[in-house]
Amino acid sequence: DEIPAVVGIFSAFGLVFSISLFAWICCQRKSSKSNKTPPYKFVHVLKGVDIYPENLNSKKKFGADDKNEEKSKSAMPKNSLHLDLEKRDLNGNFPKTTPKIQSSTDLENLSPKHFAERKKDSVSPDSLKSSASLSSDDKQDKLGTLFFFLEYNFEKKAFVVNIKEARGLPAMDEQSMTSDPYIKMTILPEKKHKVKTRVLRKTLDPAFDETFTFYGIPYSQIQDLTLHFMILSFDRFSRDDVIGEVLIPLAGIELSEGRLLMEREIIKRNVRKSSGRGELLVSLCYQSTTNTLTVVVLKARHLPKSDVSGLSDPYVKVNLYHAKKRISKKKTHVKKCSPNAVFNELFVFDIPCENLDDISIEFLVLDSDRGSRNEVIGQLTLGSSAEGTGGEHWKEICEYPRRQIAKWHMLCDG
User: How far apart are CA 20 and CA 353, in angstroms?
Assistant: First the structure.
C-alpha cells in the first residue's frame, strides 16, 4: 500500500514541475519577442501613417553580402502589420503631421540652377540620356513631369523612394477634361518589388507624397538596379489608361551625400511593344448536327515582354459573340514566364442559331499580374466579317463542318 502512495506523490510533483517549466519557457519566449525590433522588409509611409504590408516570402528578399545577414533573415517573422493607432484623435482620424520633405510651393521656389547643380553632381551622362533622348513627337505630346526623392539609409541598409508629385499630366477623360492618376513603381531587373500609390481623383497635378522603403538592399547593389515608374489614370468601367512611363537607371547616381531630388519628363510607354504582338495557334471545328463550336487554344509564340523588365505570364481569354453581344466566355490557365506558351486547352460552345453568319469569336492574350489589372498583350477575332487570316479561317470551318482546322494568326493591339 505504501509503494502506490509514494508513486502517486512523485507523479504529482513531476506533473507540477513540468507545467511550471513549460509556463516559464513560454514567458521567456514572449518577453524576448517583445524586445526585438521587427525587421520589416518593406515599409510604405502615407501621410504620417506607417504601414508594414503584404506577405513577403523569401522570393521577395534581396540577397545580402555576408552570412550574418542571411542568418538574421532566417529569424525574421514572415508577416507583420503595424498601424500607429495611438496618434488618432477622438474621432478616430489621424492628425496631420508636418512632412519632412519640401512642399510643392518650396519646389516652385527652387531655382532651375539648384536642380541642375544637384543633378550634375549625382547623375551620370548615361542616365540623363535615357530620359533626355526623346523624339520630336514625344516632346510635342508633353505627358508631364514626375518629381521624386531618392535616399539610402546606411544604418538600416534601406533604399528609400519618395514619390512627391507629378505636374502637367494630360486629360484622359474627354468629358471632364481631367484624370484620376496613380503611379506603379517596379525595381528592375528582378521585378521583386511592385508597389503603387493611391488614386487621386480629378487632377492633372497630383501630389502623392508617398514614401516606399526597401530594406536589406546593400549599397553596392544599388548601382545595378533600375526604377520603372508607370503613370496611369484609373477607369472604373474599363482598363486603366496608361499615360506614360519613366525609367531611371541608378548606375552613376550618388546617394551617399544624402537625399536627392530628381525630376524626369514622362515619355510614351515602351515604343518597342507596338512592333509586334506575337502569334496564336488556334483550332476550330463546327459541328452542324449538334450546333456546337469546338475551340482549341494550342500555342502562342514570340509574345512581347510585359514591360521593360522581363517575360510575360500569358493566358488566353475566349469570348463568343452573337450579333455583337457576348454570350459565353472561357479562359486558359496561366503560363509563367513564357513568350512561347503551350496551352492545349479545349472549349466547346453551344451556338444559339443554325449557322455561323452572326457568330464571331474573340481571343484575348493577357499578361497575368497579381498586383494590378491584367494587361492585354494582343487580340484576335475570327468571324465572317473579320479581315485577313481571321476571315479565311472562319470561311474554311463553315465550308468544311466536322473538320478540325488549325491556323497561326498574328495578334493585333488590344
Answer: 78
Alpha carbon 102 to its chain centroid, in Å, reads 28
Integer angstrom CA distances of residue 410 from 279, 331, 362, 403: 4, 19, 13, 22
Instruction: Tell me the pLDDT tens digit for each residue of 139-176.
Output: 446 789 999 999 998 888 888 999 999 999 999 887 88
Instruction: Select from 290, 359, 268, 275 the least CA-distant residue to 318.
Output: 359
Taking the CA atoms of 304, 307, 312 and 317 in sequence, report the sign of the dihedral they define: negative
| Cα 283 from Cα 293, distance rounded (Å) | 10
Radius of gyration of the CA atoms of the chain, in A: 29
In whole angstroms, what is the distance from residue 263 CA to residue 164 CA?
A: 10
Which of 395, 191, 208, 160 minimizes the C-alpha distance to 284? 395
Contacts for 358 with CB less than 8 Å, ≥ 6 apart: 322, 323
C-alpha cell at 246: 519613366
Which segments of the chain have a pLDDT < 70? Answer: 1-2, 30-141, 191-192, 238, 270-276, 306-310, 370-372, 414
CA dihedral over 96, 100, 101, 104, signed as positive or negative: positive
Task: Return the closest-CA partner of residue 43 out of 85, 81, 98.
Answer: 81
d(C-alpha 287, C-alpha 351), whole Å: 10
Query: Which pLDDT value is given to residue 200?
Result: 93
Determine the number of helices (DSSP H) and then strands (DSSP E) in the chain. Answer: 8, 18
SS3 assignment for 8-75: HHHHHHHHHHHHHHHHHHHHHHHHHHHHCCCCCCEEEEECCEEECCCCCCHHHCCCCCCHHHHHHHHC
Strands, E assignment, 67-142: none
SS3 118: helix
Task: Tell me the whole-structure pTM to 2 decimals.
Answer: 0.42
Contact 244, 268 (CB under 8 A): yes
Question: Domains (ranges, CATH) in the chain?
Answer: 144-266 (2.60.40.150), 278-411 (2.60.40.150)
Closest by Cα among 150, 100, 111, 131 to 261: 150
Measure the CA–CA gap between 329 and 102, rounded to whole angstroms.
51
Q: Evaluate whether 319 touches 382 at the Cβ level (below 8 Å).
A: no
